[in-house]
Amino acid sequence: MFSKWQPVFGKSDIKVTINLAKQLSNMLTSSIDIVSMRVPDVITSIGTGSDLARHSLRTGVYCTLLGNALGLARATLTELCLGGLLHDIGKEPMSLQVKSAIDGEERNTRSHPLIGFRRLCTHANVPLTILMMCYQHHENVDGSGFPVRLVEDEIHIAARICAIANRFDHLTSSDNPRQAYSAGSAGRIMEQDRSNRFDSEVMRVWLKLLKNHLKND
């Protein structure tokens, strides 16, 4: 199943992508031992596929872990996992971009939430939770994010969860062109941004979850 995820973002058939993401989200939420799983272990647990595919898989797992720590229902956890898998569906893999065009990469980054949202809207029965995770995961609680500069509770709770999971993976991933941070260092960096970027309560729960998993390291 995981091996199928590598080329999924290169497919033009949105239905294929969503169906595979549904299978993966059901499998992950069924198989992950959420209580005992150590968050840092997820960083290296997915070793196949493209950078974007690995990032999406890890983000889906982190969203599920955080949702569970927040006490959300099982059905919501499955949607969080699915939203994490699909949150960057509007972003083309780097292999499809002109790598030397930095401005093109910036446009890809800024536009992908809207592109992904529109793609998902062409498919019937995509839950609002997943749509908002795709569209709003780069919004900041102080209104400095994109694409529409939402603030605080204007941002869907699932998108606020996804924003934290997404940022944590970007900081800790070995796919990062800069040196990856340790899980503990990433948590400290994110804590500094909690007042302007992230939901304070969701961040509190994430840092507590992260601390519990790191306490024996």
Helix/strand layout:
Layout: H1 14-31, H2 39-45, H3 51-69, H4 74-86, H5 102-121, H6 128-136, H7 157-172, H8 183-192, H9 200-214
Q: Could you say which structural class the secondary elements and strand pairing correspond to?
A: mainly alpha
Distance between the ends: 31 Å
Q: Classify the beta-strand content into a percent band.
A: under 5%
Contiguous uncertain segments of 5+ residues: 94-102
The helix fraction, in percent, is: 55-70%
Query: Which word captures the global form?
Result: globular
Tell me what you see in this structure:
- The protein has 217 residues and is mainly alpha-helical.
- It is 59% helix and 0% strand.
- The chain is built from nine helices and no strands.
- It is globular and about 40 Å long.
- The two termini are 31 Å apart.
- 41% of the residues are buried.
- The model is unreliable at 94-102 (pLDDT under 50).
Quick summary of this structure?
The chain has 217 residues and is mainly alpha-helical.
Provide key terms for this protein.
59% helix; 217 residues; single chain; 9 helices; mainly alpha
